[in-house]
# Entry
Amino acid sequence: MTVTPVIKVAVPRPIYSTYEYSIHPAQETPCIGGRVAVPFGKSREEIGICIQTRIMSKRTDLKSISKILDTEPVISPNMMNFAHWISQYYIYPLGEVLFSMLPSFLRKGKPLRLSDSNRWELKDLSFENKRAQSQTNLFFYLKENPGASTETLVQEGFSRATIKTLERKGIICQAATKTDYLSQIVQPKPTQEQKLAIDNICSYLGTHQTFLLEGITGSGKTEVYLQTIERAISKNNGQALVLVPEINLTPQNLQRFRDRFGDCGILHSSLPPKQKLDEWIKCKHGVSRVVLGTRSSILAPFANLSLIIVDEEHDTSYKQSEGLKYSARDLAVKRSKDLGIPLVLGSATPSLESIQNQKLGRYILLSIKSRFGPANLPKIEVLDMREENQIDGLSHSLIKAIRGCIEKRQQALLYINRRGFSPSVICKNCGYQFQCADCDAKLILHHSPKQLACHSCERTYSAPTECIRCNSNKLIPLGAGTQRIELAIERMFSDTGVLRIDRDSSKSLKSLSTLLGAIEEDKPLVLIGTQMLAKGHHFPSVTLVGIINADAGMLSPDFKAPERTAQTLVQVSGRAGRGKTPGKVLIQTYQPNNPNLRLLVEKGYSNFAEQELATRSQSKLPPFRRLAIIRSESSDHKAAHRFLERYRDKILSTSPEEKKSLEIFGPLKAPLGKIENRYRFQLIVLADSAQELRDSLWQWVPSTSQRNIKWTIDIDPNDAV
Ligand code: ADP
Ligand code: ZN
Ligand code: ZN
# Structure
């Protein structure tokens, strides 16, 4: 029997196996990490990644690959190992993990090279003069003019085909457009605390160590990042990756990096595909020395990464909620460990996970205790809404404070994490609350256009005039959202500028930068917004922050809700008084004696976190144990439930010594039990260690093509009830 070499290919499909293909004798062997086109399923062709070559096989029934797309790997050996680890940890198909690492152009099979505006230089100087005249001419032209762009070459009469041919033959290549990153700008002198942090991190350059940089908003963490990066990249052509929760929302932040380092690389999901590919290649080839990116940039390739920074490490947007549900923060820990480089996790309100890791000695704590310059932390006051008169959700005390602020020509910021006019419409006669027909969700009343909207499925309904149950016309909007606050403020302060920032008001980046531009101007203004306003902005004229409804978060059944609410309250409060004038924060609540709220306001975030960690420890919840949620969803109520029952039984039927600490709850109805007429259930799995959790979940990974059922595994979930 003959033995022939075959290769193993991972394709981007929801399947937990890889496939073997034979290679035609006339074909070259593809490189590991390179793309290949393979026949897949019924005569369909799929692009896959070659993950292993030269396996000797006796099988004669294998199909052969149709095409080799790359001569150099798109996935480096380093990234290949990383992908294997991610696939194991998140219980996610390897092919899908590998494709998550590629920009969409490469996923679609486009060539691995920069788009047209590229510059060229000679790669192979030993040129034989036997080639076509046009090729010879191009060779000598580039010898004289290294770095000429494609456009210039075309203008000079060279055809794109000639350029391609010489590139393919390895005679010319993309010029590394390395700009001089180290700017001429003089670095500001770091404060004593900043200097300690910078020196400490830099003493670990070249080895792995995670730092937790805890510093209140405005304390100068970004300055620590900038100066640390400067030192990290000036050594051995290093690169630095800075993860931020959002780039579009914080143009000011990006500008600061550009001012310091010139043309930073940027990577985020709303880049046009062509630009994304270019940015990705510039990372891979080491051209971009400093890269600012959102969560997916932790999956980008680097030639010589020497430092990773995760800003606002507690931010929930680091966790991907669809598909491969990774946490970019956690992957940064893994990646920096593998690469042997330092990692900085920065936050004013660190996650409980990171605080716990620091306590266990895994991370080094660096703290900056005072704000930079004259700015002081704002005073926080709690307003008891049971005692307050109110108009449209605004208490008299808050209104009075806003008035005072405007009279002094300062700015106020009102935070409310609900968009729309009112979160609920209720019938005063029979108590009916308007519900989405397709979801287990209340309908939100919106103003302009006036309509009801479901925030789960985005379906809209015309605004009702009467109750659908009792026909009464006594309908009242219950509670306030951003639009209601905006209208109320406009009515009360008709001469003052009012700016609302939420998902409805700032659909495009352009309008948001205009909005933010207005804020920087030094004139009285009332800003109203959701979560979007809380993140990273620097509003020097804001001296008053009003938190409209602090209760919503504290009352949620999700065990992570108190942590998240506290983080948001502190972050929003941190927007006040960042300039010369001290700030003030007013928190409206119906539960002024809520112990979590009291602790936070009176003793600060660290003490709150301490207390909350004790609660988690007592209830044996993360970070003291590891958690996974398996979710199922189907239009068939019973089928969705039955699937999880089967899942649970499979896990429980495995060997008892494997599941010493395993605890399973459910199947239970999911918090939103129905969305778009699909029923949703979940199984909650807890174990003492990540290893134990993973081992038990890997025991049974059912086919993903369940009839009529969609199911997912979420390791270390964000939302956990
Ligand atoms: P954070 O990132 O912690 O919110 P920033 O780094 O944005 O804080 O610092 C707050 C303000 O103080 C910024 O305007 C920044 O330019 C300024 N700043 C911070 N450190 C210094 C320093 N060493 N010298 C001069 N200005 C500084
Ligand atoms: Zn009614
Ligand atoms: Zn709906």
